[in-house]
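Re: the pair you flagged

First of the two:
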Amino acid sequence: MPSWSSETTASTADSDLTLDAFLGGRLRLRQPARGFRSGMDAILLAAAVPARSGESALELGCGAGAAILALGTRVPGLALCGLELQPAYAALARENASLNALPLTVVNGDVVSPPASLLARVFDHVLLNPPYYDRTTTTPAADPGRDLAHGGPAPLPYWLGLAARRLRPGGTLTLIQRTARLPEVLAALPATIGSPELIPLVPREGRPAATFLLRARKGGRAPFRLLAPLCVHAASRHERDGEDLSPWARDVLRNGAVLPWR
């Protein structure tokens, strides 16, 4: 899927950071100018989580906080938590939570050996955007932080296993990932996670799905469901400069709407 960053980008006093606006300006995030930068995928992931006020949500690998804070912006009254391996990104997530007056707890650690403070908690929802690339077959990124986010060493079963263990019974797991890794994701889903539903995300009409969203439930028993694809851009090809999002995508990305899960 074509990259999509923020609606506005402004230089900050620190030349290594930018200040980016999401959700029509309702969410502002400081992000590395040259490191890993969140964009469309984080907002779509947050929009797919079926959370309600008063519940709790955990993001595994929260980076600078884009997805978990977008979820908190859309659903006030959530208890928010993020697990992040890289200390610099964890610090940015805390700063971004303060910048947006959102109650986010960020825990430093990884999915292979998570800290005890996280293992003591359970959540209504777990969301995750595991690294998209297997670095045994792809080229590393020049920036170390970006490379770790895109191709970290922890295999998918560790990500999904921790997500399953941190969910309360009936809780939901929501994930976004590259379509090329779909077989790995389905094979790695723990036995306690059921009722999986998948939506392919198509960049433009007639194009192959580049990524997908998967939602499942702890203890769910319904069969696998492959739902109709969602097309992100309105035109079948890029014909002009400027935004050409589909109506649903514009509503999600600009207005903080719920993703049309159908």
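Second of the two:
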Amino acid sequence: MIETKNNSIKGWAEDDRPREKMILKGINSLSDAELLAILISTGTRDESAVDLGKRVLQLTQNNLNSLGKLSLKELQKIKGIGKAKAITIAAALELGKRRNLEEAKLEFSVIRRSKDAFAYFAPILNDLVVEEFWVAYLNRSNRLIEVKRISEGGVSGTVADAKVIFKHAIDLLASTIILCHNHPSGNLQPSEADKQLTQKLVTAGKTLDVHVMDHLIIADGNYLSFADEGLI
């Protein structure tokens, strides 16, 4: 479908067209809907690309973090968003996520506190709709050696194998590890299983001379630190 003469962005003043506005005033001058309009490229018979972008944002109450969690099928439920446009939107959001992760790698190559760990793990885990368990491996100076995904599960849980976690620690000659997993439900409170697993890993770490610094639970852009809460 194509935009009608009344709704076509081509009929707008040059300063108001997203692409031209970006060239003239810079990318920061564009609203989220206008950025989406550039990705979407064309609107429908009844709506401009910007209007369509606004409807995409309305699907998640203008929350870009929530938008990043939508599947291709969910995006395609919006009238005017076909497979190609859904793929373009998802790809752009994934690039943004990866950029944030690269920035976190540079900024937090040394992790000393829960805030540092959260800033590093958030780009990885914030948008996931299933639980994943990750571990950061650090040297004696708390400098990051490597980060590994240990397991991937369902909406309500995943399994973390202590043998796998500590094998990586030994292989990497890590002195400290930080545990992290997400709760897609949005509930930050640790389950009894979370607490038992943490204690099991702390105990195993002492035997192997690998310090378990913290265990973070991430949900909806926030986190709970076992260390901060006195749970570790």
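The first helix runs from residue 18 to 25.

-B.
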